[in-house]
Amino acid sequence: MTEAKKALVERLFAQQGGALRAFFLRRTRRHPAAADLAQEVYVRMLRIPDIGAIRNPEAYLYTVASNLAREHAQQERRDRVALDVDDPLVQEQLAELPAFGGDLDDEQRIGRLREVLTQLSPKCRAAVELAYWHGLTYEEIALRLGISSHMVKKYLSQGLTHCRRRMARLG
After folding, report:
1. Is-above-0.70 flag for pTM?
2. Which residue, among 132, 106, 139, has the nearest Cα to 117 in the 3D structure?
3. Which of 56, 69, 77, 127 shows the greatest Cβ crowding within 10 Å of its Cβ?
4. For residues 67 and 60, what is the distance between their CA atoms, to the nearest angstrom?
5. What pLDDT score was predicted for residue 38?
6. Contacts 24+ apart (CB under 8 A), 48-56
7. In this structure, which topology does domain 3-81 adopt according to CATH?
């Protein structure tokens, strides 16, 4: 690494460090993530082979930061959706019904569940119903719906997460 590159990155860090952390904090709402992302920007800047070719280093810094913020948001979405419904621990949690107040009887819960299921997309709702009401396997559901087994797992994960959240609000 050349001394000029190191000096430029150090200068950018000194001048833009606080603003860059604030930039990420507005997008992540978490201080540790903002600090880590700001640090990653500087690591990426140090990896640029010809940093002297960059006309406006500050603008480039925020371009890298914007791209990194987008990557981080995509990863966060994947992490939220990435629920492995085959995991025994997940199966155990899914088998447990949320605690409902004594005011609700089974009929009301079933009615509420039907209402919550209508909020799902048609294929997601069909996957949940075929799996849990009809006992079909992922492969059987995939054949019936004309989708892959992977998509069935994704629909079930999304559907169950949605149902648990909506039903838990009753308690």
Report:
1. no
2. 132
3. 127
4. 11
5. 87
6. 48/5, 51/4, 51/5, 51/8, 51/9, 52/4, 52/5
7. Rna Polymerase Sigma Factor; Chain: A (1.10.1740)
CA 167 and chain centroid, separation: 21
Measured between alpha carbons, how far is 120 from 17 in angstroms, rounded to an integer?
A: 43
Common-topology check for domains 3-81 and 88-168: no
Is the model's pLDDT at 109 over the cut of 60? Answer: yes
What does the alpha-carbon distance between residue 130 and residue 91 come to, in Å, rounded to a whole number?
17
Domain 88-168 in CATH 1.10.10.10: yes
Domain segments of the chain: what residues? 3-81, 88-168
Give the mean pLDDT of 113-132. Answer: 87
Average pLDDT estimate for 71-84: 73
pLDDT at 103: 47
* Residue 79 vs residue 167, higher pLDDT: 167
* Buried-exposed string 16-50: b where 16+ CB fall within 10 A, e elsewhere: beeebbebbbebbeeeeebbebbebbbeebeebee
